[in-house]
Amino acid sequence: MISYTPIDQAIAQIPKSGTVVLPGLSGEPLHLLDALVSERERFTGLTIYHMPLATPCHYANPFYKEHFQIRSFLLNGQVKEAVKQNMAEYVPMNLSNVPGYMETLQPDVAFIMCTEPNAEGHTSLGVSCDYTLAALRAADVVIAEVNPSLPWTDGAPVISTDEISYFVKGEGQLNELSAATPGELEQQIATHVATLVPDKATIQVGIGSLANAVVASLHDKQELGVHTGTFPEAMIQLINDGVVTNEHKEMDQGKVMATCLVGSKELYAFADRNPLIALQPSNYTHHTATIAKLSNFIAINSAIEVDLVGNINAEMINETFVAGVGGQMDFMRGAMASRGGKSIIALPSTASRGKRSRIVMNVQGFTSTKSDVHYVVTEYGIASLFGKSTSERAEALIDIAHPDFREALRQEFYEQVGQHEPKSV
User: EC number(s) per UniProt (predicted)?
Assistant: First the structure.
């Protein structure tokens, strides 16, 4: 049995100018954070580290600027105004490195969300493992919101209640993200991506409409494995249909390996006490040494734009950071180290309703580098880049750009590099 602490008494344990680390992505404890906001007047410059997705981030209200300062590993729309008001700053970091950073940071307090403990005195972190485990073990004080609706997931999320300083009662509310429905464009891109995925491969894919299209496009494959960051809800169908078996993975055989869950109640119900799914920290799932042991590892990621030599921007729009590094470079590097591995970037050819090409002369900012990608895919096809010269890369990428932009891109490239265009034969 555990004893519960009144939530105001738990919040009182936080130093007024201290450091609080929140769980990653959908793991933020809503009841605790509402209480923190309610008690904001007692804090002056409390530093909050977070990596939110599918969470309301009420604490990021610019009106609370004198009370809270935010340091974010992943920017999104919920913190947009906080960034403009100098209340929030972006901390670019590969997700594989964040657990180690927690050990260096030594936060005053870690907030976590966990399941009700079992008879053996263990509880599960449920949907968020990434750096959450490292944060709770590095913090002076751990405050846990017990959420009876949280799924029990196996692997590293299962911890002893002895590691928790204070328990508060949650209200059963979960952070949910509805599955994005792919359109025709995403389906066209996904069809090209699927041709690059062999049977018995181990795949990594993100979340969102394009990722869901990619997953759906793999329904004709056989005996796939999954080793990923965020588990995509669309993957449930492939598991139920026997496409994903995880039988040929050299590590974690028979299990889907991920570091967090973000989705709907259906996803959380599927994961609850499911022996096929295990979560591990990101310094395991995203580490190159781990991924390199998996043969035929296929990393499938997206981007905002790709330049004509293959550099990738997945963070900036109009010179403003709008996302984060996340695990993109981790998985791309891992794919490069995997025997038979492939590093794939998939994206639509245009943005702004066709007014702007996403294949560009120069990217606004670098998330991943030209030497870490094998293929770039748009609705117009596949550009194979590995082992190609800069001019060969440019020609391959121009070929999959939208036709309205191809000639201008070609002219700009050869003017900038001071070379003549290759003559057709």
Answer: 2.8.3.-
d(CA 394, CA 361): 9
pLDDT in tens, 83-117: 999 999 999 999 999 999 999 999 999 999 999 99
CB 128, CB 54: distance < 8 Å:
no
CA dihedral angle for residue 301, residue 356, residue 88, residue 79, rounded to 10 degrees = -80
Least confident of 99-103, 236-240, 365-369: 365-369
Q: How far is the CA of 44 from the CAs of 39, 48, 65, 328, in angstroms? A: 11, 12, 9, 35
Q: Name, in order, each residue with C-beta under 8 angstroms of 235's C-beta and a sequence gap of 6 or more.
A: 205, 215, 226, 244, 256
> How far, in Å, are 45, 123, 216, 222, 372 from residue 368 at the CA level?
33, 37, 26, 30, 7
User: Over 80: is that where the pLDDT of 17 sits?
Assistant: yes
As a whole number of Å, the end-to-end CA separation of the chain is: 79
Phi and psi at residue 282, in whole multiples of 5°? Answer: -70, -20
Largest CA-CA distance found in the chain, in angstroms, rounded: 79
Inter-residue contact 68 to 276 (CB < 8 Å): no
For residue 79, give the DSSP letter: G
Please state the φ and ψ torsions of residue 214, each to the nearest 5 degrees: -60, -45
Cα–Cα distance between 199 and 208 in angstroms, integer? Answer: 24
Whole-number Cα distances in Å, 107 to 78, 165, 207, 374, 390: 23, 14, 30, 39, 45
Alpha-carbon dihedral sign for residues 97, 98, 102, 105: positive
* Domains located in the chain, CATH noted: 7-169 (3.40.1080.10), 184-417 (3.40.1080.20)
User: Which residue has 């702007």 as its token pair?
Assistant: 356
Return the axis-axis angle of helices 209-216 and 184-194, rounded to nearest 10°.
50
- Residues 110, 92: Cα–Cα separation, whole Å: 20
What's the 3-state SS for 349-370? CEECCCCEECEECCCCCCCECH
Statement: the pTM of the whole predicted model exceeds 0.85: yes
Classify 381 as helix, strand or coil: strand
Contact of 192 with 381, CB cutoff 8 Å = yes
Q: Name residue 94's amino acid.
A: N
Convert the pLDDT of each residue in 175-221 to its tens digit.
999 888 899 999 999 999 999 999 999 999 998 999 999 999 999 99
Handedness of CA 172, 71, 37, 57 (dihedral sign): negative
